[in-house]
From TrEMBL:
Catalyzes the formation of N(7)-methylguanine at position 46 (m7G46) in tRNA. This is tRNA (guanine-N(7)-)-methyltransferase. Residues 1-30 are annotated as: Disordered. Pathway: tRNA modification; N(7)-methylguanine-tRNA biosynthesis. Keywords: Methyltransferase, Nucleus, RNA-binding, S-adenosyl-L-methionine, Transferase, tRNA processing, tRNA-binding. Its EC number is 2.1.1.33. One of its GO terms (molecular function) is tRNA (guanine(46)-N7)-methyltransferase activity. It comes from the Eukaryota.
Length: 278
């Protein structure tokens, strides 16, 4: 996508979301003008997004103009208002951070927020960007096998009703996709929520997947990204103000040659549970 096409897309998204020229590029946006529903049904958004046919056709240069041959390696899926995306940009300066958000108005807020940080801090935050997309459907269009090092899922929609469980962002089917994109033996999947039932769901499905290993508490305590995930998201700060609990877990993408990976069979890889059927 060329710079002109990218600008047209931005204006189209802004018009769709009802966001006018509230904030000039380079100025810090005010959140009150970019409020949106807390969550969005990912199964009802089919033709809203632009995406390349193949990852090789994606021009990441429009997202990271100061970086040569850029490709994101850290994803903040459902990034909300960008608190963690911004924090990771300074915590992981050698990585390219990409926030993924399905809501147009919120995506525009994060985009403007990143541009404002770049203007206020020359040479910094060039490794952060945001993309409006439907993660549950479009990740294969943007990312290649083994290209990602970290994927974060912070306070996702719980979808409490059983009939809506297939909409949950962590499921057996989607875990197989995430395993495909994460680097074997190095990639990590981070998840945090304030809903204990959803946390138990995350742990149950990640533990059951043959390509993920759960990190111990000691391992998580040594990971600075866990601390950022716990404290830097807007939703996490709201939970702290309410005085309620946060539940989190981290899983590592194992090497395909390990004993656990050898346990994979056609029966357990293509299980019914992968497709939201319990």
């Amino acid at each position: 996508m060329t710079k002109t096409e990218n600008e047209k897309k931005r204006l189209r998204d802004a018009a769709e979301s009802g966001v006018g020229p509230i904030t000039e590029e380079g100025e810090m946006p005010q959140k009150k003008f970019y409020r949106s529903r807390a969550h969005c049904n990912p199964l009802s958004h089919n033709n809203t997004f632009d995406y390349p046919i193949h990852p090789a056709e994606m021009d990441w240069g429009t997202h990271y103009p100061a970086i040569e041959n850029p490709k994101p390696t850290v994803l903040d899926i459902g990034c909300g208002f960008g608190g963690l995306t911004i924090a990771l940009a300074t915590l992981l300066p050698k990585h390219l951070i990409l926030g993924l958000e399905i809501r147009a108005k919120v995506t525009e807020y994060v985009r403007l927020r990143i541009l404002a940080h770049r203007k206020e801090n020359p040479g910094k935050y060039e490794n952060a960007s945001v993309l409006r997309s439907n993660t549950m459907k479009l990740m294969p269009h943007f990312f290649e096998k083994g290209s990602l090092e970290k994927i974060f899922f912070c306070f996702p929609d719980p979808h409490f009703k059983k009939k809506n469980h297939p909409r949950r962002i962590i499921s057996d089917r989607l875990l197989s996709e995430y395993a495909y994109f994460l680097k074997p033996g190095q990639g990590k999947l981070y998840c945090i929520t304030d809903v204990e039932d959803l946390h138990n769901w995350h742990v149950k499905h990640c533990r059951a997947h043959p390509l993920f290993r759960e990190l111990s508490k000691d391992e998580m305590d040594k990971d600075s990204c866990v601390k950022a995930m716990y404290s830097e998201t807007e939703e996490g700060k709201k939970v702290e103000r309410a005085g309620t609990n946060k539940y989190y877990a981290v899983f590592e993408r194992i090497e395909s040659g390990t004993e656990d990976a050898k346990k994979i069979t056609g029966e357990n890889f293509f299980s019914q549970g992968q497709f939201g059927i319990e």
